[in-house]
Design goal:
The chain is of the alpha/beta class. The protein has one domain (2-102). The protein is 21% helix and 34% strand. The chain is built from three helices and seven strands; from the N terminus they run ααββββββαβ. It has helices at 2-6, 10-19, 91-98; strands at residues 24-28, 34-36, 42-43, 48-57, 65-73, 78-84, 101-102. Strands 3-2-1-6-5-4-7 form a seven-stranded mixed beta sheet.
């Protein structure tokens, strides 16, 4: 019960996964590849696996929804990427993530 309460916020989940070694911050480029924030490493969808993901919903505003993906690459790079969830999702991030192999929870890749 304590774990559930602690993992309610994006910040608390980020802290937890960073302690587990997922320290890189990723983004999806306009070209549709996953990149580290410094652009020194880039990955195609087939090089990336979703290890886990977490959804967050705003208590006061339903449009305040986010998803955090915990990712690992075939080179061993480990990190996270976040996106709005639902109506406000970034189309580029969503398109990339639908192509990535999901090792974690059951991620519905067809209806986000």
């Amino acid at each position: 019960m304590e774990e559930k309460r602690q993992l309610k916020t994006l910040v608390s989940v980020l802290e937890k996964v960073r302690q587990e070694g997922y320290t890189l911050d990723f983004r999806v480029t306009d070209e549709g590849v996953l990149s580290t924030m410094d652009s020194k490493q880039q990955f195609r969808p087939e090089q990336v696996q979703i290890v886990n993901f977490y959804r967050f919903e705003g208590e006061s505003y339903p449009g305040d929804m986010a998803i955090l993906y915990v990712l690992e690459t075939d080179t061993g790079a480990k990190g996270t990427i976040s996106d709005a969830y639902g109506t406000y999702a970034d189309d580029t991030v969503e398109a990339f993530m639908r192509q990535v192999k999901d090792l974690g929870k059951d991620l519905d890749k067809h209806s986000r």
